[in-house]
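Methods — Computational structure assignment.
A single polypeptide chain was analysed. Its primary sequence is given first, followed by the predicted tertiary structure written as structure tokens.
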Amino acid sequence: MEIFERRGMPGLAYPEAYLKRLAAELSEKFAGIFSAETVERYVLESYTGLLRTSKIKAHLASQTTRFATDRLTALAQAKGAIERDEPEVLFVCEQNAGRSQMAAALTIHLSGGRVRARSAGSMPAHELNPAVVTVMAELGVDLRSEFPKPLTDDVVQAADVVVTMGCGDACPVYSGKRYQDWELEDPAELPLEDVRRVRDEITARVRELLGDLDVVPA
């Protein structure tokens, strides 16, 4: 675990021992796919990325575990080291606090898990928009455990379709992937009724996307 000592841990909100333990666990999980140093680097990058945006530091440990695991899984998928049968969609907006979170959750919900979806933000916020959590709960979709995540290259590489929503040119472009841009109003600061309208527009677009992927929406 020399990478932690070499780089230092400024502003560490959790003991260095926790990150070492997480890196060891993930190194075992991804044994034969990634070296221990690669896993350590991803753990550290995931932690420091979330440290800048996480509002509730008490959740930082679980968020780091989820974020690092998902990034390593995405990288393994992109490398062909992990097989998958379902198509993968990445939704990107600026804050990853509203539109992209709703789109990813609706894709999973409406596809019945037959499409994998991730979301990320070019400039992630500290927390999800509470109104977004409320309107999604009205559909039976629970976003209370979700959190804004920085956009990283690995999740873009793993995606078959990348949908951008007002994040400009922040998303890297790779050949062989489908790119779409959805012009949607940002739900930040909108009244609840208008957030519902944005949610319903995203729902319609997700249904259309699923049709393009030959998946019959629920």
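Note: The first strand starts at residue 88 and ends at 93.
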